[in-house]
Design brief:
The chain has 18 helices and 22 strands. It is an alpha/beta fold. Strands 7-8-6-9-10-13-14-15-16 form a 9-stranded mixed sheet. A 6-stranded mixed sheet has the order 17-18-22-19-20-21, sandwiched between helices. A hairpin with a 2-residue loop joins strand 15 and strand 16.
Length: about 500
């Protein structure tokens, strides 16, 4: 963090700062500057600010004694020391400096918003239904060829993660890339109000969080709330291939910029001459302004080329050369759970299990189909699809079967509709897809039990295996199991 004092923090969140005798004895005062902001007591460092939040399972106030002992400069709390002593058993005598607020999470957002107001660096805000994280990695990778960049880590893209990301910005950073995810109306307003992006980038409008947003038009309205809180002099970049985003023409009186693969004549940055290299990625010619140059996209899937084009837009805006943009795209690394290839013994695993909706699951199936070996998709429940969940699962299952895969393994309560859709499609096209074997398991444990008993039937030797489901299904456990069952040999390249 830049220099921010306890007094400034208290004012920012409307809290009451108390300097106990213990705090004064440690030399902590109104002008003491904090070094970091954390919610996790295990990440405390000397001089840090600890936000004691109340979660569904854990009350952060119970760790107040621990964080002070570890060197925390101050605690933001919604409970008094006496209340914490009664409820959590932490003696009031252990407390150092603290800021008492009505709601700790709201205080975190307020501090994050205030801190952002002190920054003058460009901040790229990225949202969309699918591809936010991959696009964030491309944008950060490109910008890092010229600037010192901070980017969102892990799943820190919500009303807790965004302020924590902002508070990680240090004096040496010259740009920040902030991922922003929502599930309901109003959330983007709150996120964008904190981040105040100078560049807004929207990847697409897909079918996710339909329980609250109902339709793709609802999703478009919720995502574009980002425009209301962005820097009014900032720039907007949209995926020109998306039918909903293509209807947006200007923001704050300024024309928007489109990127894509040449499917929309209004695209300012686009890719042509696409050559897919199976699971090794793609090559293409990128058209940028009046120039063009070749790019190598290391992540598999043609949709990654659009993400790379998005990054090129931001790179051009912030003054990078064609060579720097191409190098940034080429050097991007896969993120766990996001189309990450894991070579195993006699198999290759596509770890794409961080999250799922119908659009991203179809894209993952298309990616799996690029392998030139046997192909097996392990698919799980997709959450937050609303009243059309059964239909969307059924249609996605039919799509998987129509892809001509060797095996489809469906796991989960809602996955029975994936299985039903796949079964119907296989029955209708048996002559076209005679190889496809279908399996359904209600839970992961049932699948793992069957894997122990009939592993070769489920996962034939030499096959490519896709793992895809919503994050709540915990498919990362299956990644771990498969890595142990088929350990990766040294220097083995995945199939393509």
């Amino acid at each position: 963090m830049k220099q921010m004092t306890l007094q400034q923090i208290a004012r920012a969140c409307g809290g009451a700062l108390t300097l106990t005798e213990r705090a004064v004895g440690m030399g902590i005062g109104l002008d003491t500057e904090v070094t970091a902001a954390v919610l996790d007591s295990r990440k405390i460092e000397t001089g840090a600010l600890f936000f004691a939040t109340v979660g569904e399972r854990v009350d952060g106030h119970s760790f107040v004694g621990v964080v002070y002992k570890a060197g925390a400069a101050c605690v933001v709390t919604q409970k008094t020391p006496e209340q914490v002593e009664r409820e959590c058993g932490v003696p009031a005598s252990l407390w150092g400096a603290y800021i008492l607020v009505q709601d700790t999470l709201k205080a975190l957002c307020a501090v994050g918003e205030y801190y952002r107001s002190t920054l003058s660096i460009p901040i790229v805000g990225i949202t969309g239904s699918v591809g936010k994280t991959s696009t964030k990695e491309f944008v950060a990778g490109v910008l890092s060829k010229k600037y010192r960049v901070l980017k969102t880590e892990g799943n820190y893209n919500n009303e807790i993660g965004v302020p924590l990301t902002l508070l990680r910005i240090r004096q040496e950073h010259e740009a920040a890339v902030v991922e922003m995810g929502i599930s309901d109306f109003g959330e983007m307003h709150r996120l964008a109000k904190m981040a105040r992006p100078t560049v807004c980038l929207i990847t697409n409008i897909g079918q996710c969080h339909l329980e609250n947003l109902k339709t793709r038009d609802g999703i478009l309205r919720a995502k574009t709330e980002i425009f209301d809180e962005m820097d009014p002099d900032g720039e907007v970049y949209l995926n020109g291939e998306d039918d909903k985003l293509a209807t947006v023409r200007n923001v704050h009186g300024k024309p928007v910029h489109f990127f894509g693969v040449g499917g929309n004549p209004e695209e300012e940055v686009y890719a042509t001459d696409l050559v897919e290299k199976g699971l090794y990625g793609s090559e293409a010619m990128l058209h940028l302004g009046q120039g063009q140059f070749p790019i190598s996209v290391p992540l598999p899937g043609s949709h990654m080329v659009i993400n790379a084009a998005a990054a090129a837009c931001v790179g051009r805006l912030l003054g990078l050369s064609e060579e720097e943009i191409a190098a940034g795209i080429r050097d991007v690394k896969p993120v766990s759970g996001r189309s990450r290839l894991i070579p195993l013994r006699d198999h290759v695993l596509i770890d794409d299990c961080y999250n799922a909706n119908p659009v991203s699951m179809r894209a993952a199936i298309d990616l799996l189909n690029q392998a030139d070996t046997a192909k097996v998709a392990i698919l799980g429940d997709m959450f937050e699809l609303g009243e059309d969940s059964e239909r969307m699962h059924t249609e996605t299952g039919a799509y998987a079967a129509g892809a001509g895969l060797d095996g489809i393994i469906c796991i989960g309560e809602n996955a029975r509709y994936l299985y039903r859709g796949a079964m119907g499609a296989v029955d209708r096209t048996r002559e076209a897809a005679p190889r496809t074997k279908l399996f359904y398991f209600r839970a992961k444990d049932d699948f793992l039990e069957a894997l122990s008993a009939q592993g070769e039937e489920l996962l034939p030797d030499g096959c490519a295996i896709l793992l895809k489901a919503s994050h709540g299904m915990g498919f990362q456990e299956l990644v771990t199991v498969l890595e142990k069952r088929f350990p990766s040999p040294e220097n083995r390249r995945p199939c393509s």
